UniProtKB/TrEMBL annotation:
A Pfam family of this chain: ROK
Domain of life according to the entry: Bacteria
Protein name, per record: ROK family protein
Listed InterPro entries: ATPase_NBD (IPR043129), ROK (IPR000600)
Family: Belongs to the ROK (NagC/XylR) family.
Annotated organism of origin: Neobacillus rhizophilus
Gene3D superfamilies: 3.30.420.40
Coiled coil location: none
Length: 300
């Protein structure tokens, strides 16, 4: 059984996993990030790789390579983390540094949303005759598109779903970007504004599910924003399948039925086939490390 290490690197935490070529997560480890300095951050990456190996029965000689997902813009060909909002790694040579550190030739690097999407596509069957979209709603909002088994990247910035403009109806007609209006922090901010109470995003969903009346219009508004954005995807791509991930959706799977109902109200009948193939991630927070690891086994 071939094995790879998958890394999911973020500004808050770094997760590592040993992944089989079938996508099974054999061992997992996690450490806190240290974004105070680029070298301190890399040291934490080394630590989590060593930790996941030490916690397992494998050594680095059992590993085929390392796959890495990092936020922001990535130069995949040269293995460089080009730009990130939450890491001190501008123009950081991730692949070369990992090769030097661990002696493995095969190092694959990509944007973290793309690595998560790859895991979800594989878990969904990896159909190379379809168009597959992965949508993540968490601290931010983004998506990745696989068409006939390959990522659609455009000129390098495709998939920035959170930048799509949506129309806010609740407080007067006003245009805004989807991520600013309906990502996790925006949901908490909306609730605070409407209810004049300090709340977390988790509080909002818990009280909605408990049936507290004041929270019903908040979730109604947020899910309508998502549906507006998703309708753009429906029109432009007409995807065969959409999988949702990110903490907001993965921790609140009941939202899927609300999203379907609202999206259906925008669609014409020829677009509604996708409603039956919309689902919430079953891999959840591990999709980034699983997808990164699986990329090691793909042909270049």
């Amino acid at each position: 059984m071939k094995k790879a290490i998958g890394l999911d690197i973020g500004g808050t935490k770094i997760a590592a996993g040993i992944i089989s070529e079938t996508g099974k997560l054999l061992k997992r480890a996690e450490v806190k990030s240290d974004p105070s300095d680029r070298e301190h951050m890399f040291t934490r990456v080394v630590e989590v790789v060593e930790q996941v190996l030490n916690d397992s029965s494998f050594s680095i000689t059992d590993i085929e390579g390392i796959g890495v997902g990092v936020p922001g813009k990535v130069d995949r060909e040269n293995g460089i983390a080009v730009f990130q909002n939450n890491l001190p790694w501008a123009q950081f040579p991730v692949s070369d540094r990992l090769r030097d550190q661990f002696g493995l030739e095969r190092i694959e690097i990509d944007n973290d949303v793309y690595t998560a999407a790859f895991a979800e596509w594989k878990a969904a069957g990896g159909n190379k005759n379809e168009t597959f979209v992965y949508v993540t709603i968490s601290t931010g909002i983004s998506c990745a598109i696989l068409h006939q088994g390959s990522f659609f990247r455009g000129a390098g910035f495709a998939g920035e779903f959170g930048l799509i403009p949506i129309l806010s109806k609740a407080r007067g007609p006003k245009w805004g970007r989807l991520e600013k209006a309906a990502a996790g922090p925006a949901i908490a901010k909306l609730a605070e504004t409407v209810l004049e109470e300090t709340l977390s995003t988790k509080d909002v969903f818990e009280r909605y599910q408990a049936g507290v009346p004041e929270y019903q219009p908040i979730i109604d508004e947020v899910t309508d924003y998502w549906a507006q954005g998703l309708y753009s995807i429906s029109c432009l791509l007409d995807p065969h399948q959409i999988v949702f991930g990110g903490s907001v959706i993965a921790n609140n799977p009941f939202l899927l039925e609300i999203i379907k109902e609202k999206l259906k109200s925008y669609q014409i009948s020829e677009q509604q086939h996708v409603l039956n193939r919309m689902s919430v991630s079953t891999i959840k927070q591990d999709n980034g490390i699983v997808g990164a690891g699986l990329r090691v086994f793909e042909e270049n």
